[in-house]
């Protein structure tokens, strides 16, 4: 990641924000272009520290333009998700699949279901362990 | 009570113009108007055995004959395929004086200010509504009642016991025997009321057995009570509190202690059915713009009427929903639509799916989703208080799935009636959040519609369809088995292996060290567990156990062990560094910072750099500055550079982190964990190709370094080389089958590599099959 770029995790205590920083770097690689082709949707992700809806921070993962930024979506997202921090981490690491998260009520979806359907853990790079 | 009675037509909810029988109530009337099926209902009810006279029951004091409304759901019992037209005269009722009365009565009921009593466990707005209603029913002094108390009531226990056994028979599904009961002295009004209610109730509780069965059960009941099926009411219907009423109220009374007390010291002699009328005479008609009008205005397109008609194919099931309580309306409506859509899908996979069964069960109220737990519905346990049930649902449902979909920007039907209804309601009456609110959430149907449509159209593609199905199936299975995942709070609790051959070993620590050195990490874990079981205060045992877990790619266990090691020896530098690293891996910045600062603080050489004040929240830059000072003091100390590298990882200054690790590696080139740290940093900063090289160095130094194998897999996956990544994950898992992360990543790589055929092996954790396909 170019260090000059502002980190999306700046000032955030969310683990998810740190992960989204990885996504940001990831999208700049060839893998990003694959995702652009394969998915090409824009997602807004609202993440709450503990409970969905409370103290949420919004992030946008734009796979159309390969951007990740903090805040509300510029324009209309194809789908909006709400998570608690840990649940987002679980979904992005593949320890729970998005459908299961949804069924359990750990993930809320708004917007197009077909866009939501493409939101899978393979969008996310896996954090490598030191 | 409000909800239960609104739905079930407790006499407290009678509405002027209606006859006070069980089905006449605001909600029922409303539902009927929604469904546009009132006239049809009347016809059908006439056909029902034992209900022939029901239309004629209107008491003389209740004004014009209203349509016999019925429970939402029960009117759907029959008439399949008959596309009933919405009768214009019925809709007109919402505009004529009769409807106005209803509206006014309702508004009065909500607007009237009464001191709210404290009802434990109920939200305040509900208390108010409940209390008002209750007050209006029971609040009259005995002397002011215009009807004399009932003296000829039969012994309560006989009747209630008998009625209970009737209800119970729905559980066993056994035919209900007609029994000759002692003379109960029921009045005609009582009898007709029992007849009406038991007919309707019978339809509900025996919905799965078919109408004929329900009828025979009800007939047996009626026969026992000496009630003729075609009994016609001769006296005023309302005004007598029969035993049956009493029974109906019991469930409610039990649920709210306050109200029970009320019943206890207030004689139940009022005119429950007349409360609405009383309101009316007290306050006079009002011309407030009401939600009903609004509601009617929007009705022009007959949109939902049609929709409901479409759902008639599923009706038998629908009838049950009243047993799930009001709250389940929310869940069952959408699932209902979903069932229909899904059942139209001819794919046998769909048809046989547990998902479909699950959803149809939900639509019948057999399963309810409560606080994200699927539970058996209350369909078979009528004795449960419905009011309670509603409360549960009321709190649970907004949290659960689909509720979100009510929100505005829904493209499917942005202006659904439910939303408008909800909104209008809020404008009209500021006492929000009562049951009407629940109605507004009916918009959850939307997602089901959309989801169902898309499923039907195959928008998701076959694969994703099945993944949804699997999720539901799995979810249902889990719920049925009552499986609970390990709660979050136990994450720092060390999980010992169940079976440990090293327990009883004379020197498990030495054995563990030995195994660790030989690279047999999973064996070493067992030996070291035996050691710490034997000597729980042995810091070295815990430390090595933690290191082993970290190398075995299990950070949670690593943290749990290291916390124990630190408890035993709070100043062990290796332990503090390991904790810092593990927390960094878990993206837990504050914890990581605390341990890394602790490392410096306890270091004999650099400890004096760290101020001894207690800091609540550590600032990354300050900690990094301390370490940079340390690095200037001793540029030849590889450990300081290592910690700096970890610190820069925390702040995602990857360039600096890489530089620090490279410096450290110059000082300690044979430290395999340093090579891995360098690689991980490179991979996390989108330099996975470089990372592969670093990992290879680490593996050359320590071939059984599970973490590096696993990281290698991540490195390849990040570059889109999924086939390669699978090999490395499988290799890592062969060495430590307990590395959960690697299993998850493997699954993702398998699906990305278009090897869904191996997902099953992955799910079963069948390493043999995987190794055969992906040898390394």
UniProtKB/TrEMBL annotation, chain A:
Taxonomic superkingdom: Eukaryota
Pfam families per record: SCP2 (PF02036)
Listed InterPro entries: SCP2_sterol-bd_dom (IPR003033), SCP2_sterol-bd_dom_sf (IPR036527)
SUPFAM superfamilies per UniProt: SCP-like (SSF55718)
Domain spans labelled SCP2: 26-120
Name recorded for this polypeptide: SCP2 domain-containing protein
Species annotation: Sphagnum jensenii
From TrEMBL, chain B:
Biased amino acid composition, Polar residues: 67-85
Annotated TPR repeat ranges: 539-572, 638-671, 672-705, 706-739
InterPro entries: PEX5/PEX5L, TPR-like_helical_dom_sf, TPR_rpt
Xref: PROSITE patterns: TPR, TPR_REGION
Compartments in which it is found: Cytoplasm; Peroxisome
Keywords attached to this entry: Cytoplasm, Peroxisome, Repeat, TPR repeat
Region entry Disordered, spans: 1-88
Similarity-based family: Belongs to the peroxisomal targeting signal receptor family.
Protein name: Peroxin-5
Organism this protein belongs to: Sphagnum jensenii
